[in-house]
Design a protein that fits this description.
Length: 166
């Protein structure tokens, strides 16, 4: 998404090469102030001195979040299963896909509030107690059982006192 935004800005700057008195909802091309396309649309035909900008909707699996003067929409992100991602919010014509981790994983790399990479939650071994189960954004937290106590299983939430056998 970051790269897409940079491409978007660079294209916008190229369209504004001339000093412009156009409003934020317009772009300057060949000295003309022309209306931008709304989010979810792209330019099919740039305006001329005798005709307005013609905009068409983005096609399936593409989007445009901003008012723009681009002749293309951006490709929707795919949530890579190899990175243990799943779709949290589907791509729409005005918003990119949002990914989150599959169950049992937590996000280890965020870019613009969107998860890019997940890691498996750590399993606490016997002899430890879970203090916080893993979440979508945090790994499992656990501590050793205090002296004189134990836990027999993985992912134990409590430590039991040792008993004396006589």
């Amino acid at each position: 998404m970051h790269l897409s935004f940079c491409i978007f800005l660079a294209t916008q700057l190229l369209l504004y090469q001339e000093v412009s008195s156009c409003t934020d909802s317009e772009y300057n091309i060949r000295g003309e102030c022309c209306p931008k396309c709304n989010p979810g649309y792209k330019v099919e035909r740039y305006c001329t001195s005798t005709s307005s900008t013609i905009c068409v909707p983005c096609t399936l699996r593409t989007y445009m979040e901003w008012s723009n003067a681009l002749a293309w929409c951006l490709k929707c992100k795919e949530c890579k299963s190899g990175a243990h991602l799943r779709v949290k919010e589907e791509c729409t014509y005005t918003k990119n896909t949002v990914c989150s981790c599959k169950p049992g994983y937590y996000c280890t790399q965020f870019i613009n509030h969107d998860c890019e990479q997940c890691s498996k939650h750590t399993i606490s071994p016997p002899g430890f107690k879970v203090t916080q189960p893993g979440t979508e954004t945090n790994d499992t937290r656990f501590v050793p059982c205090p002296p004189g106590t134990y836990s027999e299983t993985e992912m134990s939430t409590s430590c039991e006192p040792w008993t004396n056998w006589q």
